[in-house]
TrEMBL record:
The species this protein was found in: Ignelater luminosus
Cofactor binding, per record: Binds 1 zinc ion per subunit.
Ligand binding (Zn(2+)): 359
Gene Ontology MF: a single term: metallopeptidase activity
Lineage: Eukaryota, Metazoa, Ecdysozoa, Arthropoda, Hexapoda
GO terms for cellular component: cytoplasm; extracellular space; plasma membrane; side of membrane
Transmembrane residue ranges: none
Main location: membrane
UniProt name for this protein: Aminopeptidase
All copies of domain Peptidase M1 membrane alanine aminopeptidase, residue ranges: 299-503
A Pfam family: Peptidase_M1_N
Amino acid sequence: MAIRILILTVLVLQSLQIIEVQCSHKRSIDLIAAHSLISDTRLPREVTPNSYILDLHPYPEEGSFTGRIKINITWQETTDRVTLHAHEDLVINHSEVSVTQYAPDDETSFREKESSTPHTPVEIKILRNEMVPKKPLFIIYLEKSLNRGTQCEIEISFSGKLYNDTSEGLFRSNYVNPSTGERKWFVASHFRPNLARRVFPCFDEPAYKVPFTLSIVRCKTMTALTNMPLLKSEELTKDPRWIRDYFQESPPMSTFTLGILVSDFASVAYNKTDDKDDLDVDIKIWTRPDFLSAVQNATEKIYKSLKSLQEFWGLPYPLPKLDCIALPNYQGTRPADNWGLILFKESELSNKGSWQISHELVYQWLGSLATPFWWSDAHINNALARYITTYTTLKISDGKETFHNWPMTMLYSIYYEFSKRYPHGKVMAIKQDSGSTKTELVFRMLNYTLGEKTLVHGLQRFISDRQFKTFFGDDIWGAITEQARFDSTLEDTITVNEIAASWITKDRLPVLNVTRNYGDKTSTLSQRVYLRERPHDVPDQDKLLWWIPVVLIREDKLNFTNSTPVAWMKRQREIQITGLPDADKFIIVNPEEIGPFPVNYDTNNWNLLAEYLQNNDGRLKIPVNTRAKLLHDAWNLAYAGDLNFATALNMTLFLRYEREHLAWDPVFTMIDHIGRHIDSSNVHKKFLTYVRILLTPLYEELGEEPQEGESEGRANLRSSSKVFLCQAGYKPCIEEAQAAFDKWMDTENPDEGNPVSNQYICPVFKWGSQEEWEFGLQRVINFPASRKQNERTYLLKTLAGCPVDSWKIEKILNITIFEQNGNFTDNDIYLIFSMLTGGSSGYTTLFNYLRKNWDAIKKAFENKPQLWNSLITSSTSVFKTQEGLDMVQSLYLEKQGQFGTAEFVIEKALKNIKEEAKWSNDNLPVIEAWLDNYLQKNKAENEKSKFL
């Protein structure tokens, strides 16, 4: 009896915790109303769980499982039914569903307490239970209504299948033992985001965090793992081949963090070398026995990451053990971050880096220990997890792991995405990812502007408050605000909530314009929406304002260690700052990309920066991330039409001395963007010459072959330089590509495989002979069905997209449109049209081809309106000059009324081309004048170049 009373006391306390969670409410920022990650059937709030006791018996070879669950629940409202999540594939034994009342309602409980009479468990009669059609719901209808405070235990038996074609829910897979050839089965689980209902009836929402007590039946030769350590094992009386393992009760956790593995895997443990080590966690990696040596070194990385994260959070790792599984044939797009039992792909635990490991370990605190109340908060959870991962991994590796130039690559991608007229298009996945990336960068901005100490302590304050509970995104901002006020790094009138909301609730970014008044040493700072893609006719753009930190560096007092803002633009259109340096000294605003926004200056300040960067001693005083930012901002602002191109091109002059790959990274993107924009004009040839002069010394200095021990950045710099030089016609590159291609042409059976590296194919099709291109065409036509089709797709892309000779393009169009070659599908034609938009030779040839063969093409596509629309789009929408506008305008007038479903396409194209032609008319003369001057000064280098 004493034990029962103790249990009931614990259950009451747990139910109060659940009630507290359920009564949480959204506060000032709805961080996700527009960013829901999943659409799901929510449960009524009439009853809530207190705990689960779950027994599972998987049959790996048969592909099925059976189970039994006991759920202790509390009534929050008077009701006569209990609604649970249960997937339609789950088979519930309706005759084995029972409801037992262990505690009465609040009023009765109070009377019994006064009389010292304990409540006797009573079985509640069930009228019926049913699966709801087309909804993942299971409802138990009771004979009578039960009042608030009533506690019952539901017991349900069920069975289901082990999924074999996916790594979701409770699934099975196998591997072959290389020594014996025997097939070995294993069972694992992945319940994120709402897949626990596939395995057992439950309250399958993240807000319901309660303890789990789990038991698993396995055969004697296998091992069972779950979130908690093993408590005891016993043989099944009826069949001693089976063992039931009982595991320790878990802390309160959401259903999606429950993890299970039943396998014959072997393990390697991390052996601590220091007895005083404060990381008291049993760390093991499990995998198939023959793969154990490949993951041997990962235990050290797990240990270091776990220790670093424990220090970051200021809280110990919340479980007594951590099992990481290198799973064969794992099909998940990302690891399954179950609490204390993480499933990885084998390659993710055997590769060199540690970012992926650290990223999953972050979720052991952020997601498992403290859990978003609903999936609408998942984007801020993911953003913070990624930021902390990078923060801690950089510290562990002493900055050696660069994560593909983090954060610059991320910044550039969202600059491009959010500056479009229509960000994301209709692709929700892009919207979610770019939104999460922006939120990650907001955390980085706060790290600089409030201080690293304040941000870390604020996050520690948050996790300490919400451990074993749920949270809203606003809880994070609130904790950082409290810490910032305690540290006096934020005015009492400002909240981090306000700052963050101005960034994460908009699908846009600002540009900051800095106009100096050199006479009185002041400057006007104004903000507006950053729009790169024309026309800049975005509605309501004048209403969008941000909280922008103004971090300022001055030439006369260079100090890149102080990132405290000299001012905040508090959603103000314009502010003034004073006390700037003399007129001959530059200033830099937003160094190191502290905030995710570009900065434009007056021409004089840009020129001061350009001159300083050409001085080698001065240039190295400016950190490489800031050098990259200045270059990237200048080129993108010029591309957007906000900066004179001569000023932007002046910012590239320091590159002849620059050898850091981080500074070069934006150059390659802009060479591509500007090159595509002007390649239909006469200026393009001069631009290519400029690219050759810029890149040839760099590439020749780097050398053709990697050096022993060189950095990843240097290797990437060599690779990028080579790609762009090849595109520009660099003879050594073309000859190397043709030599590799000749080996393929000389093989006896060329259709059996492609021995040529992808980097060589485009240069050959662009600069090579007719024979080489025709050979490639035959390989596409004869491509065997047995080979990977993505190889054929790549070959077709380069075959259509790389050539500059119009006859090659016309030939592939003839074959696919008129000859109706059975080896080409409509999808192939879509792909060809799309690839021809990549260069002026492609889309100009396509336009002329359409015009010349109008009637025949119309007939060929009369029953294929989507292909017809694609053709009109690709052949008319990409022109950038007045000449191109005249061509498309002439076709429109000539064929007016004949475009059918594509009428709106060409009308939209004409509107856009007018904008692009205006840009070309404004900028091409400026670019040409600058290039003429540059090429004249570098005439000697141009004359000795090794180009076609």
